[in-house]
Amino acid sequence: MKTYIGTKLIKAEPAYQEIDLKHLPAKARDGYRVVYPDGYESWSPKDVFEKAYHQFGSDKNTVTQADVDGFIAKKEVSTVKANTTLVVVTLANGFILTESSACVDPANYDEKYGAEICMEKIKDKIWFLLGFLLQCGINGLNGGK
Description:
Number of strands: 6
Number of domains: 2
Structural class: alpha+beta
Distance between the termini: 22 Å
Radius of gyration: 21 Å
Order of helices and strands: EEEHHEEEH
């Protein structure tokens, strides 16, 4: 078998489902009710759903600043060689983005200002990546072919 990756834009809400474990009484299991663009509905266990989907802040097929900020899981800032700021950001999916900024004269160096410059560049990359992901969710990875 070959390996495939897919992206879908869906509607979902927290839900539970009664499950029958054969010899045990029915139990409620946390999960999500999922509605696909064609109206098909299904239920997904919470852990499976939350691993596969990331909530966008808008229903208008747009990426928002909150989406960009919310996709940042961790930020590390460090100074290198007395005049360079290095920022390493880990995204919600584990992907890592890095940026650096530097000044000519170490006497003018300010790590906080360097980190702000790096974060602007990183957030531009996240806008790009989430826009790509949203486009895939709307049109599929093959553009509806």
